[in-house]
Amino acid sequence: MPTALLSVADKTGIIDFAKDLKSLNWNIISSGGTAKPLKENFIECQEISEITEFPEILDGRVKTLNPKIHGGILAVRNNPEHIKQLKYHEIGVIDIVAVSLYPFEKTVSKIPKPSDKKIDQNVIENIDIGGVALLRAAAKNYKDVIVICDASDYNIIIESIKNNSITEDLKLSFAAKAFQHTAYYDSLIATYLTCEKFPVQIAIPLRKVSELRYGENPHQEAALYSNGAAKCKPVVVSAKQLNGKKLSYNNYIDLESAWHLVHEFDDPACAIVKHNNPCGCAESMDIKDAYLKALSCDPVSAFGGIIAFNNPVEENTAYEISRLFVECIIAPGYSKDALDILMQKKNIRILIQEIPYKKEEQSIEYRIMSCGMLAQDKDNQLLTDIKFMTKRHPTKEETISLDFAWKVSKHVKSNAVILARGSQIVGIGAGQMSRIDSLKIAVEKMKSVKHGLDEKLYPLVLASDAFFPFPDVVEESAKVGVMAIVQPGGSIKDGESIQAADEKNIAMISTGMRHFKH
After folding, report:
1. How crowded is residue 348: how many other Cβ atoms within 10 Å of its Cβ?
2. Catalytic option among 22, 233, 275, 378
3. I want to staple 508 with a disulfide (CB 3.0 to 4.6 A). Which of 364, 372, 386, 389 is the partner?
């Protein structure tokens, strides 16, 4: 009679699975916690302690770690010596191992990682040892043992047994899944327990969220994964899609950029992103005005763009958006009337992320390289060490605008030059090989649209994500009416830029930090 070992923390589907096995004349052995509901449902089974002739000890910490269990799993059936040893030690073979592990991920989601390195005992007790060992043993001997770590696979196994269609390829696929599962589980534990910022070895627990429409280009396949160890829940990865086609790789990249940018601001704000660069951004007292101001920065580039809001979208804003071809919208909410308007366009992707956004104080970001990966602190800082560099200091109006432009500069590909009036971007130059070229592009963008802003109320300011190695940006910006500049400072030629600013009566401040974005 074939034998199945059942030891599951999550009892979902186990009763029906066990009943099906019994109907197919399988013997069942189980751990004490699993045996209880089986017996309550009149399913005959042997407890593991009956097989091992040794009780579960240490509050259940040790129950399956025994040669009479692992010998029955790991014995190679076509190895005569293995079979001889099993008979000598009176060990029966085990043909199916079905395990669900202690809910470590669920446990730590409710218990924040401590800053004082004192780990909650409940977290420790939810680190599964025996279950992981069972899965790994069965997966290693997959040619002779079927390993199950996912309750959704119970029916597949039952149907395969009934149809006598269990192949080695099927068993191999379950073995690979088991090793993926234990690797993910162990990486969750390692990440939670690790206090080093950049440990010698690292494993990132990634779980597939969905297949994507395609990658950067239609000929590239792609998928979206979420980091199971991350606590930053109000992010694009966990946003809910309400409408539209499947998202692509590029959609997610742009949504991420727009979502992070728009949440630099406390008042209602809108960011429009195209090819991973903002083409418009504004902050206002209401969300419709923020959208219209963001759109006015570069309405041509906004065509087919990604729009993010930090406040719910209402009917009037939705009507304005509907007049433009838009790829995606993401916001913390939508009124019913707004959704009725937006959903008239079947292909527009509408995402909602309802959880209040909270910036991550300390977090690491990763970038894949060929056969490697880069890791660094996320760029979460702003204006830490302001210094006045010129004789004239910025006015109150200029200071407000400089602060706004500097926040936007952090989200624009370097070399970045941002032109702003009030809390509205009027020109962006991104990703050029020289800073002067970025300025020229920003100026051309600004000149292409009439913003109608009173220059006395809204003086033109400039933000640069890195220092000026030459005074040319200051000299050229003066020609278009720039009245104040914010830049990191730190160039050996700072003096030349400061002198040029003083000559043109431009106020300049330094931040003491740069915002390269590559």
Report:
1. 20
2. 275
3. 389
Q: Which fold has domain 387-510?
A: Cytidine Deaminase; domain 2 (3.40.140)
Q: Which of 435-464 are b and which e, b meaning 16 or more Cβ less than 10 Å from the residue's Cβ?
A: bbebbbbbbebbeebeeebeeeebbbbbbb
Q: Please give the full DSSP string across 192-257, using - where no structure is assigned.
A: HH---SS-SS----EEEEEE-S-SSSTTS--EEEEETT----SSGGGPEEEESSPPPHHHHHHHHH
CATH of domain 3-193: 3.40.50.1380
Q: What is the token pair recorded at 316?
A: 């009037």
- Rounded to the nearest 10 degrees, what angle do helices 435-447 and 472-479 cross at? 10
Catalytic annotation present for 275:
yes
Give the closest residue to 68 by CA, choosing from 40, 48, 43: 48
Eight-state DSSP code of residue 188:
H
Cα–Cα distance between 92 and 146 in angstroms, integer? Answer: 16
Q: Do domains 213-224+233-352 and 387-510 have the same CATH topology?
A: yes
The answer to whether 146 and 97 have CB atoms below 8 angstroms apart is yes
Of 305, 317, 251, give the one whose Cα is nearest residue 278: 305
CATH class of the region 213-224+233-352: alpha beta
Q: How far apart are CA 43 and CA 34, in angstroms?
A: 11
For the segment 111-168, what is each residue's pLDDT rounded down to a tens digit? 888 877 888 899 899 999 999 999 999 999 999 999 999 999 999 999 999 999 999 9
Nearest to 311 by CA among 283, 338, 331, 291: 331
At 408, is the secondary structure helix, strand, or coil? helix
pLDDT tens, residue by residue, 347-405: 999 999 987 776 665 688 888 888 888 888 888 777 667 899 999 999 999 999 999 99
The 3-state DSSP class for residue 477 equals: helix
- Give the gyration radius of the chain's Cα atoms: 30
Please report, for residues 225, 227, 232, 360, 413, the alpha-carbon distance to residue 363 in angstroms, rounded to integers and kept in the order given: 18, 12, 9, 6, 21
Active site residue 515: no
Is this prediction's pTM over 0.85? Answer: yes
CA dist 468 and 489 (Å) reads 7
Q: Residue ranges per domain, the chain?
A: 3-193, 213-224+233-352, 387-510
